[in-house]
UniProtKB/TrEMBL annotation:
Coiled coil: none annotated. The lineage of its organism: Bacteria, Pseudomonadati, Bacteroidota, Flavobacteriia, Flavobacteriales. It holds the Pfam family DAO. This is Glycine/D-amino acid oxidase. GO terms for cellular component: cytoplasm. It comes from the Bacteria. PANTHER family: PUTATIBE OXIDOREDUCTASE, SARCOSINE DEHYDROGENASE-RELATED. Residues 31-383 form the FAD dependent oxidoreductase domain.
Amino acid sequence: MDLHSGMPFWMALNPLYNYYHPLKKNISTHTVIVGSGITGALVAHVLCTLGIKCIVIDKRTIGTGSTAASTSQLQYEIDIPLVELIRKIGEENAVKAYKCCLQSITDVENVFKSIKKDPDFESIPTYLLASNKSGEKLLKEEFEARKKANLPVQYLDKDQLKESLGIDAFSALYNDTSAQLDCYKGATFILDHHLKKNEIELYSHTLISDYNKTKNGYELITENGNKINCENVVIAAGYEAGEFLPQKVMDLLSTFAIVSHPVDKKYLWKNRALIWETQTPYLYMRTTADNRMMVGGEDEEYNNADRRDAALNKKAKTLEKKFKKMFPDIPFVTDMSWAGTFSATADGLPFIGTYPYRPNMYFALGYGGNGITFSMIAAQIIGNLITGKKDDRTDLFGFNRLKHSD
């Protein structure tokens, strides 16, 4: 699948992780991780920490799938507001999902502290803006639900928001627990760290074309006919994981993003906060370490890559126009634009763990706009499952909430 187009900012900013090492022989290992993006990297880190030798494989150059097109925001908020998630899955589970994401932000930061690498990780606040009167009503309900759940939140009315952020909107929810990073740099930092310590084997440009269940695990077969025998397989291939699943579990969407020329930091809004809104599809924005502004949104149903790519120029202009309406005094000139494919689930939650009748095949599918925090949760859950430990998050994020087909 063509996951993105245009010029994703992280690919322009960073030197390409220059690693070409396709598999050319039959091998055996304990665990294979399919996917070398931020999800696969976090899974590899957790497994290495647990002393499990593993192999990471990817059909592309390392880290150049969906990770390259991510806007790399870390929030405890899920795409579906807490009040709506409560109606879908119940209060206990909804609050638990939100709190898992809140903890995940700290856990991601600690991963990079442990390997002594900084992928431009920055702790920052978040403003969730009410786009209209109905959004204002939603935020009042959302504030009460989050406050009841002891989640970090403040309600700002129109005047407080104007004083705090300098923009005109109906109201906002504020918290100071979010973060942002360069997730392409993060993924390659993690993989390179464990590769140099001989804790993983890393094979790029290696496509798995088939697999068989064996007595002791799985046999993976590459397009060139080489075989990998393993006890466990972890599918961290994001939106391309469908060939390993017997049923559809998400809907594909197209999203669009732009990044500006660098500006003098005096122009940037307060505390470089993450900003997003209640409208669907929502507009979102962040800053970068070199004082650029990144803006994304304009999501629509994914039909095919050609149609998505044809819309990029128009969508980029719309995003810039929306930004300038919100911040008319900030000099924004688009430097790069790109389109990407992402997905959404019915309840806004990821799919993590084993699928029925697929023992020892673990899925780390952090679908939705909160993918990186979900990826951290997936890595921890899968690490526990492989080592035989119970994890009470399994039911919340697992496939048991689907009607299954084999």
